[in-house]
Design goal:
The chain has 414 residues and is α+β, with helices and mostly antiparallel strands. It has helices spanning 2-19, 79-103, 111-167, 176-233, 240-265; strands at residues 28-30, 33-48, 54-59, 66-67, 72-76, 268-270, 275-280, 287-289, 292-294, 325-326, 329-344, 356-361, 367-382, 385-394, 406-412. The chain contains 5 helices and 15 strands. Strands 2-11-14-13-12-15 form a 6-stranded antiparallel β-barrel. A 6-stranded antiparallel beta sheet has the order 6-5-3-8-9-10, with no helix packed on it. Strand 12 (356-361) and strand 13 (367-382) form a beta hairpin.
Length: 414
């Protein structure tokens, strides 16, 4: 009979051990070992925002994606910065070609041939300038047409909304006429959305066409500069000071190009380390700044990966963005993990920093070792019992571990 009671007690402990995965379960004590329910969390979360204000044009990730260090996460409109870099590259290419000419002047061409080359280069510049003018004029016409359509759609929407508000002042008003007006307003809204997209498409097409025409003009101007230099060198080699000036100009060009490339990088959000994307708080079309994404309402976050008490050895989990803003992307640094265990107050005096622990997860087959890092001095109450949170750092990361997974932390107490 005594043996039967022992077996029943053991079964009761086993069942309690399973339920111990939940954070509200009680700690278990058996043969000097004590087991606490715990939750897996990354030691550090990283809030990422753009360095410059702008409009989001690309979002490459979503919550749950795993990214590697250096991976692009999102971009804001960088047309101006791209033009700046392209101009710096064109200047560098021109000065490199001019320096090469000054250091090794070509031979064999007659003066008449070189003069003809200059004239042809001038004609190419004139043609490229005319093409750029025509392209910009055509772009302006197309963009104005799209904008006028958007204005017309906006006017129609405003008028129909006014009629609807007068005819159907209450949402409870349900008549055939109100149903018709509801449908008309919905169609107006769809039309407005399409018109706005047409404006955005026209702006993008105009910018791309302008860039192509501008690059053609830059190439033609480079050609005339080189042709003039070849003709000038026909009368004699370049003076040493002219070569030195060209070398100095080339160094300035290289520094300017490096600066514009660095400037361009500020328009892209890049992962600083390997990690798991736990929040994306913006989308294409949003206006952002270095403070983050403006919160116009207070919806539930896209992913609430971890409760607010986590993070030992790193920044707090709560958003560090100013009030009214959210970070654009939150990345969980998956290189280091911790288990935050729920510990009864009676066990706290026995837990010493560095204490080793065996950790098992409810959803994973393997178990890992860990060590106690700290006990957070913020007690909380569950069913009139006082608990503390003990943070155990994992010595290795189990495969497929995700933030928020539950498990049990077992320690041996003397």
């Amino acid at each position: 009979m005594k043996r039967k009671r022992v077996m029943i007690a053991a079964c009761t402990l086993a069942i309690a051990g399973v339920s111990g995965v939940g954070l509200t379960a009680h700690a278990l004590f058996f043969n000097g070992e004590q087991t606490f329910p715990a939750t897996a969390q990354t030691v550090r979360n990283i809030d990422l925002n753009f360095q410059k204000p702008g409009q989001v044009t690309v979002v490459d990730v979503k919550p749950g994606d795993y990214v590697h260090a250096g991976a692009g996460l999102a971009k804001i409109d960088d047309v101006g910065a791209q033009l700046e870099m392209n101009s710096a590259q064109s200047t560098l290419d021109l000065d490199q070609a001019l320096l090469a000419l000054l250091q090794a002047p070509p031979s064999g061409a007659s003066t008449a041939d070189l003069q003809l080359a200059v004239q042809q280069a001038q004609q190419q510049v004139a043609s490229a300038q005319l093409n750029l003018h025509d392209v910009d004029a055509a772009n302006a016409t197309a963009l104005a047409r799209a904008q006028n359509l958007a204005i017309s759609q906006q006017t129609a929407l405003a008028n129909d909304q006014q009629i609807q508000s007068q005819a159907c002042p209450s949402l409870s008003t349900q008549t055939v006429e109100c149903a018709r007006l509801d449908g008309q307003v919905a169609r107006d809204q769809d039309g407005m959305g399409s018109a706005q997209q047409s404006v955005a498409d026209a702006q993008q097409a105009a910018q791309q066409a302008h860039d192509r025409a501008q690059r053609a003009l830059d190439s033609a101007q480079t050609g005339i500069s080189l042709a003039d230099t070849r003709l000038g060198l026909k009368s004699g080699p370049a003076q040493p000071d002219r070569i030195q000036n060209a070398q100095a100009a080339l160094q300035r060009d290289q520094a300017q190009l490096a600066l514009t490339r660095q400037h361009l990088q500020q328009y892209q959000l890049v992962a600083p380390s390997n990690g798991l994307v736990v929040e994306v708080n913006g989308e294409v079309g949003d206006l952002v700044s270095d403070a983050g994404v403006r919160n116009f309402s207070s919806p539930a976050p896209v992913v609430s990966a971890q409760p607010g008490f986590q993070f030992y050895g790193g920044r707090p989990s709560q958003a560090t963005a100013p009030s009214g803003y959210s970070s654009f992307v939150r990345l969980a640094d998956t290189t280091r993990w911790q288990m935050v265990a729920q510990v009864p107050e009676s066990a706290v005096p026995k837990l010493k920093s560095g204490l080793s622990a065996s950790i098992r997860f409810g959803a994973l087959p393997d178990h890992v070792s860990g060590r106690l890092a700290t006990i957070i001095p913020a007690p909380f109450t569950v069913a009139n019992a006082v608990y503390y949170r003990a943070v155990f750092i994992l010595e290795r990361t189990p495969h497929a571990l995700m933030p928020g997974m539950t498990g049990n932390v077992t320690v041996t107490l003397g």
